[in-house]
Amino acid sequence: VAKGKPLRAFGDATFANNHALQSGAQRLANNGPFFESGVHRRIVHSLQNPFVKTKREIPTMLHRFDLHVHSYFSADAASAPEELIETARARGLSGIAITDHDTCEAHKHLIEKGLERIDGQPAHGFLVVPGVEVSTADGHLLCVGATLPVMRGEPAAKVVKAIEERGGVAIPSHPYDHWRAGIREEILDSLDLKAIEVFNAAA
After folding, report:
1. What value, to the nearest 5°, has the Cα angle with vertex 77 and ends 109 and 175?
2. Cα–Cα 20 to 30 A to 56, which of 15, 118, 135, 202?
3. Which of 81, 74, 52, 56 is nearest to 133 (CA)?
4. pLDDT tens digits for the chain (203 residues)?
């Protein structure tokens, strides 16, 4: 560019208008919210080259769940299972997994109330996923998608096997957190896991 000559992108109003990046407000107006419930798609503008207007479609999340929730059947919680459902609905969730410590009583309670179904389908448009947080000999381990008999104090490997035999998914809760009974790294490395918790409301 010659000295004193303006750059084309800033000196040519038509060029600048055609290639300017959209503001956040413009993107929201044109494409809808960044996260949107239901069957929708959002348009994401590629930032690889700000002077080339390319678009790609990415499907949005169709459902949102909290997979680590405790009720008053756990010693560390005070909410009734019904209150958990009501709060989750108000926050736009599609369902929750109630994973009380070493007990599945909340699920029996909700089934009796007609708020959870044993066939795994939503009740009144809201899905309650069976689960439990087991205090294994090696630390806390979530069972999501199944219920278990009391297995408190059993080795984590034995609990993982029991979860999988019942069709559930074993998920170490707050791993590496020794203050909150997270399973240690050397034990985690020995387990055949399909998932691991990276965030919950208290960690």
Report:
1. 110
2. 15
3. 74
4. 444 444 444 344 454 444 444 433 443 344 443 333 333 333 333 334 445 555 566 666 689 999 999 999 999 999 999 999 999 999 999 999 999 999 999 999 999 999 999 999 999 999 999 999 999 999 999 999 999 999 999 999 999 999 999 999 999 999 888 788 999 999 999 999 999 999 877 76
Q: Is 163 exposed, middle or buried (0-12, 13-18, 19+ CB in 10 A)?
A: buried
The tokens of 147 are what? 């219920």
Judge whether 51 and 81 are in contact, CB under 8 Å: no
Tokens 């896991």, residue located: 193
Question: If DSSP codes are grouped into helix, strand and coil, which group holds residue 184?
Answer: coil
